[in-house]
TrEMBL record:
Highest taxon above the source species: Bacteria
All residue ranges annotated as the GP-PDE domain in the record: 21-255
SUPFAM superfamilies: PLC-like phosphodiesterases (SSF51695)
One Pfam family recorded for the sequence: GDPD
Species of origin: Streptomyces poriferorum
UniProt name for this protein: Glycerophosphodiester phosphodiesterase
Length: 458
């Protein structure tokens, strides 16, 4: 139910009292729920996030709509420039989350107005309000003041013009700057103008620049950090005031990590990350408890035939573990087409084609279950042009649509991969101890369509 404006709010000052780094759910936690929806914000509040980042656009009639893109096409059933909408047009539209987020979600979620968010969420969790187009900064400040939420928001923008109204109202502000160069401005000048926060992209900003901004007195908020390996690369000297993430519960290891899948929920769980450099396709769900890749066909042209999604909620795995799962190969382009299990030494982005993503193959092992029954194990090296085959076996060919079971046993010295639902030959044993401990599993397909269920680590 909407928050009562007379009820004590969680203020930005209270957030500042928390130890660094604070965690901010980007677009409400867009890897866990459809971005910039009230549903996403409620989820983030329920899971105890420190703050929520939202995006707003000023509309033609003076209203404010919550949406990230400059056009409405990607996430809704509307088309055209977001800022070209009117308030009635935004209200008649719907977020078609079942089409672009996850097929199990409905296509009739409401497109929130900024006033909806202030009323429903504004008193529960501090908000970082990203003002995206001309005039949206002043309009957002006016709405915040009307709803008596001035003490629980931070106004954010790419240019200082949209921060002027918030500065005048005494509302904290943050200027976004991708690489820390601050063209036309200095750290001291930004502070003198009344902005205490700076938003930096750590993928483009050197660590020295992050530290310099903090040393100058700015509170540094980094964006958008979605992998534990990326977070580990940030300076740990206190220069990071807060971290913006699409799945902050996974990155900070505070979410309910599990020893098995939760596919029965029929939506994404923590740490299910795909190949963002190619196509951010994180798979589909099928009742009652199946999860699959490549729902559209057997050749994923946008990524040269390969798809993979990390199952981060299972990681990191110990030096000795067993991973079991059921699988179905629905279709394949050739006998060599495969479903894959990658075990990588950290949670960095993975692709089985080193040339496609400029060296995204990570150190670890790649286990291929081929359509023709081939069971192969490869050892991979970061940036290597070829994986090294360390073991293989020929088993009976997979029958499309049939349920199979694979067991992967890892000890300090061996990997044993077994199709437990068939007779011998059904197993391959590899003696190799190159990589152990802290490993993350990825489920993948190459020129195939496959599903998994009952993924259990023990």
């Amino acid at each position: 139910m909407p928050c009562d404006p007379t009820y004590p709010t969680v203020s930005w000052a209270e957030l500042a009292e928390k130890p660094a780094p604070r965690w901010i759910a980007h677009r409400g936690g867009r890897f866990m729920a459809p971005e910039n929806t009230v549903e996403a914000y409620r989820m983030a509040a329920e899971l105890g996030i420190d703050a929520i980042e939202i995006d707003v656009y000023l509309l033609q009639d003076g209203g404010l709509v919550v949406m990230h893109d400059s056009t409405a096409t990607r996430t809704s059933n509307l088309t055209g420039p977001t800022g070209g909408l009117t308030t009635p047009a935004a209200l008649r539209g719907r977020i078609d989350a079942g089409n672009w987020f996850c097929s199990s979600w409905p296509n009739d979620l409401r497109i929130p107005l900024f006033t909806d968010v202030l009323a429903d969420i504004g008193g529960m969790v501090p908000l970082v309000v990203h003002c995206n187009n001309a005039g949206s900064g002043a309009a957002a400040v006016a709405a915040v003041q009307r709803h008596q939420r001035a003490d629980s928001v931070l106004i954010m923008a790419w240019n200082e013009t949209e921060l002027v109204a918030a500065r005048a109202a005494g509302i904290p502000t943050i200027l976004l700057d991708e690489d820390g160069t601050l063209a036309g401005q200095t750290y001291a000048g930004l502070l003198a103008a009344g902005t205490e926060y700076i938003g930096l992209n750590p993928a483009l900003t050197p660590v020295a620049s992050i530290q310099a901004a903090a040393a100058a007195g700015l509170k540094v908020i980094v964006y958008t950090v979605n992998r534990r390996s990326d977070y580990a690369a940030l300076p740990a000297d206190g220069s990071i005031w807060a971290v913006i993430s699409d799945d902050p519960w996974y990155v900070q290891k505070s979410g309910p990590m599990r020893a098995r899948d939760i596919y029965s929920a029929q939506t994404y769980h923590h740490g299910m990350l795909g190949i963002v450099s190619g196509k951010e396709d994180r798979g589909f769900f099928q009742a009652p408890a199946w999860y699959g890749l490549d729902a559209s066909g057997t050749q994923h042209d946008a990524n040269l035939g390969y798809l993979g999604v990390m199952q981060g909620y299972l990681g990191p795995l110990d030096a000795s573990f067993t991973l079991d799962f059921d699988f179905i190969l629905d279709s394949a382009d050739s006998g060599g087409a495969s479903l894959q299990l990658q075990l990588t030494v950290d949670d960095a982005e993975y692709d089985d084609d080193v040339d496609n993503l400029g060296g995204a193959r990570q150190p670890g092992y790649n286990i291929l279950m081929r359509s023709n029954g081939g069971l192969d194990v490869f050892r991979t090296v970061h940036g290597s042009t070829a994986a090294t085959k360390v073991g293989g076996a020929v088993t009976t060919a997979l029958v499309p649509g049939a349920v199979n079971h694979l067991r992967v046993q890892v000890t300090p010295t061996q990997l044993v991969v077994t199709r437990t639902n068939i007779g011998t030959p059904n197993s391959v044993t590899v003696t190799d101890s190159t990589y152990r401990g802290g490993m993350y599993p990825h489920l993948g397909v190459r020129t195939a369509k496959a599903r998994w269920a009952n993924v259990i680590a023990s």
